[in-house]
Amino acid sequence: MSKILLQTTIPANRDDWDISRFSLLAAELRAAGHDVVARNRACHGDDPVLSHLDECGFDQLWLLAVDVGDGLTEAECAAIGRFRTDGGGVLTARDHQQLGSCLLGLGSLGMVNQFHDETVDPATMCDDQDNPDISWPNYHSGANGDYQPVFVDGSVHELLHTTQTASRRIEWFPAHPHEGLVTTAGPYTKVLAQGRSTSSGRRFNLAVLIDGERAPDGRPLGRALAESTFHHFADYNWDTDCGAPSFVTEAPGHQIDSDPSRLAVFKDYVRNVAGWLTPA
Questions:
Q1: Residue 248 is part of a domain; what is its CATH number?
Q2: pLDDT in tens, 90-142
Q3: What does the alpha-carbon distance between residue 238 and residue 260 come to, in Å, rounded to a whole number?
Q4: 8 Å CB contact between 225 and 160
Q5: Which domain holds residue 240?
Q6: Closest Cα partner for 108 from 165, 182, 161, 159?
Q7: What is the distance between the alpha carbons of residues 154 and 52, in angstroms, rounded to a whole number?
Q8: Terminal CA-to-CA distance of the chain, rounded, Å?
Q9: Which of 159, 220, 250, 271 has CA atoms 20 to 30 A from the CA of 262?
């Protein structure tokens, strides 16, 4: 099993998406046998763990990018780069518009995470019509607390395998009113799964993986996975009774509460990711 750093990009703040809002994810990873350290940033300067990540003995970094652009320093980005060069696996999870845009400092992982561009007409890219203050990219996959269907073109990747459905694949992810944009920019990338906007019907990428990338000196980099939103993993999206920060105003859905069996299947995805990011 792996030693996993489950890390947010903000200091502790109970009225934000700090690490206390991802306790169910941490518990699920621990139940799968992994050694999980769950923490927020310690300070606004160089974080003592992130800035020395390659020296700390972790196998994986699950980086919950909940900041508005200032969540990683240059020293931390460099350490994460060295961590991948040493074979460490990285998952990133951001959200709409500019949320989590600190990821742009992570090389190829920054390339696949795309954020707001003022030259793009919001009318052509905003799927969430209920929140006019949130500009693109945003994709309305459903209410927090509801499910969204997962679409796969071609063969099903091992990350989506499960024995709990007739199709033998993960069929549902937790939904969110405004997911971000992850793309196959750069080599060694592949779309893992797609969602569908409930407002426009357009498809968007739920997750993009990076596998087979090499460092300039030829060493293989650790695998990486970019999620369109950290809400795939937030307590509130798995169980709305856990509550959300005060700035969340959308009415929640009740599908997961009414039928938790599909969430149990999604947790196979969490376990699959934790196995895949650190190959045997």
A1: 3.40.50.880
A2: 999 999 778 788 999 999 999 999 886 656 666 655 565 666 666 667 888 99
A3: 9
A4: no
A5: 3-276
A6: 182
A7: 40
A8: 9
A9: 250
Q: Which helix (H) or strand (E) holds 263?
A: helix 261-276
Domain count within the chain: 1
Counting DSSP H helices and E strands in the chain, the numbers are: 7, 11
What is residue 135's predicted lDDT score, i.e. its pLDDT? Answer: 60
How many residues are listed for the chain in this entry?
280
Residues 6+ away with beta carbon under 8 Å from 88: 53, 54, 58, 59, 60, 61, 222
pLDDT above 70: residue 219: yes
Name the band, by pLDDT with cuts 50, 70 and 90, for residue 280. Answer: low
Whether 152 contacts 160, CB under 8 Å: yes
Q: Which residue has the tokens 């003995």?
A: 57
- Take residue 253 and report the two structure tokens written for it: 């859905």
Of 14, 194, 10, 18, the closest CA to residue 102 belongs to: 10
This prediction has a pTM of 0.94
Tokens of 144: 């927090």
Q: Which residue has the higher pLDDT, 32 or 130?
A: 32
Please list, in sequence order, all residues whose beta carbon lies within 8 angstroms of the beta carbon of residue 222, skipping any fewer than 6 positions away: 83, 84, 85, 86, 87, 88, 89, 90, 277, 278
